[in-house]
Input
Amino acid sequence: MKINVPVHRANTRQVKTFIRSLGNKGKTDALDAMYLARYGYERHDRLALYRLVETSLETLQNLAMRRIDLNKLLVAEKNRLKAPESSHFVKKSCQEMIEMIKRQLDELMGEIKSLIALNPELVKKQEVLQSIPGIGETTACLLVILLPELGHLNRRQIASLTGLAPVPNESGTKIGYRTKGGRRDVRSIIFMAGMSAAHSKSRFGDAYRKLVERGKKKMVALVAIMRRLIVVANAKVKELVMQQA
Output
């Protein structure tokens, strides 16, 4: 039975910080309930409502996260293979693991593509994303799966969600990098797309080279391109969503 009650899925780290800021050191179910209620009461006008994830999208998200996990294992095994002190047996074991992981990655990607093909909305979003320089088929697949908010947020919100929004990071004379937080796995995906776009002959590549010529550190310039990339992607998907509405 649907009762249509608006729900917000709270970030546990933010809630814990909020509770600690009130000076509370105790923890019981009753205290947790009281402080969660207070958190909602004081911030309800700024909290994003939770959107129920479709079963098919949840399955895709599980597959995408598994692919990310396997990619991390693949990198680790490749590093072990290059270790100079490794014995012949260890190297052989690493090579076999690498081959097995690659096979599983191919199988996972095949399953992901098959499920996306059954969802016309995701197919259109993927096509829109692939029209952007630096974003290939795999990146587009992963973004439509792991970033369902794409096209439903404004440029500042999508940049913040992906950890690409500039935030103050200064103390005295020290000035640090100004991006942090966000979804780490999504940011890693955008990083690879940003690398490709920054070294292309597209407008993103031109912007990257101009930033470097102006004295910006290469990593700072790359993050700027990543931010532009996700903002453009969000705008294009938003346009598609509005057309379908």
